[in-house]
Write a structure and sequence with these properties.
Layout lengths: L2 H13 L2 H8 L3 H15 L4 E3 L4 E3 L1 H28 L4 E7 L8 H11 L3 E7 L2 H9 L5 E5 L7 E10 L1 E5 L19 E4 L6 H13 L5 E5 L3 H9 L19 E5 L5 E9 L7 H15 L20 E2 L2
Parallel strand pairs: 3-4, 3-5, 8-9
Antiparallel strand pairs: 1-2, 5-11, 6-11, 6-12, 7-10
Helix pairs in contact: 1-2, 1-3, 1-4, 2-3, 5-9
């Protein structure tokens, strides 16, 4: 039994006339008549009563019509679902992200993606860059959001946007009175920072930057989470150089100041290079990510927690 047989039968049942039904399904009348007879032979019972004026359904045909319509509707839904999956409009997407993106970038991207693709289930997992690379290799996540560089040759990446580093200072610090700083202004300050093994890319970039200014930061306290480091700043333990989107984390006792010539940290989307790694859902997510980040351009600068001017809003990588 083929779907065309069901379509022919439904058309005949609704038109009650072989000629009109044949025109409706774009076949000649004899072909439609043969299709209905073949269907009756397969079912094993008469489905229609043929008269000189009109066609009527038998009791068996009336019941068969209900099932035929349901089957055709399910077939259409199945085709539609396949086409939507090919466009990335249905399915499941697991996204890994480094912790800092929760304060900027990620919320905008996920909110917009869920608006445009409500039938895609999005699972978010907070992972370090190294954990994301391992998860991508193992198929545990579909796409990762992290900082450059991406070391695994089996992964592809696309730059999404850049973020400068800013200075996080205790609110009462003398440097907090300045609107902008130079990196050399911090050369005598104690620093709080991540252990290198947890944020090697981030750590090394900061060290290169300060080395160009003629010093190595005096790291007096380490912590593994940004909120903890900012709490240490608020307590006056030291200064910190977070990526700009952390300035959205308003913490009493901490102010953020732009730093002249601050290095730009590149944030990228990463996926498996092998065939199938960049699925339609992944492609849809990448497209939405670009659009969501573009929408942030031109927005006013964020205010610091003390009401002063904060760091400028991030712009997309070009």
């Amino acid at each position: 039994m083929e779907l065309r047989h069901l379509r022919h039968f439904v058309a005949l049942a609704e038109e009650e006339h072989f000629g009109r039904a044949a025109e409706r399904v774009f076949v000649v009348q004899q072909a439609l008549s043969n299709s209905i007879r073949n269907l009756e032979d397969e079912v094993g019972v008469p489905l229609v009563l043929r008269t000189t004026r009109r066609v009527q359904l038998t009791p068996a045909g009336q019941e068969f019509l209900i099932g035929a319509r349901e089957t055709l509707a399910r077939a259409a839904q199945t085709v539609d679902r396949a086409r939507r999956a090919a466009r990335g409009e249905v399915g499941r997407l697991t996204v890994g992200f480094v912790s800092g993106l929760a304060f900027g970038g990620l919320p905008e991207i996920v909110r917009r993606f869920r608006e445009l693709y409500p039938n895609v289930s999005v699972d978010l997992r907070e992972l370090t860059a190294q954990e994301q690379e391992a998860a991508l290799r193992g198929g545990l996540i579909d796409i990762g959001l992290m900082l450059l560089p991406v070391r695994d040759p089996g992964l592809d990446s696309r730059a999404l946007w850049r973020q400068p580093l800013v200075a996080a200072l205790p609110a009462g610090h003398p440097l907090a009175r300045k609107r902008r700083l130079h990196i050399r202004d911090l050369r005598q300050e104690p620093f709080v920072f991540f252990p290198r093994h947890l944020r090697a890319t981030y750590f090394d970039q900061v060290m290169r930057w300060t080395a160009q200014a003629g010093y190595t930061p005096n790291v007096v306290q380490e912590a593994i989470e940004v909120p903890t480091l900012l709490s240490l700043v608020a307590a006056g333990v030291g200064v910190f150089l977070p990526i700009q989107f952390f300035s959205r984390l308003a913490l009493p006792g901490v102010v953020y100041r732009p730093v002249e010539d601050a290095p730009l940290v590149e944030i990228v989307a990463v996926w498996q290079r092998e065939a199938g790694g960049r699925t339609p859902v992944v492609r849809a997510f990448l497209s939405v990510a670009r659009e969501a980040l573009d929408a942030q351009e031109g927005a006013p600068a964020d205010a610091g927690p003390d009401g002063s001017e904060g760091a400028p809003v991030p712009s997309r990588f070009r």
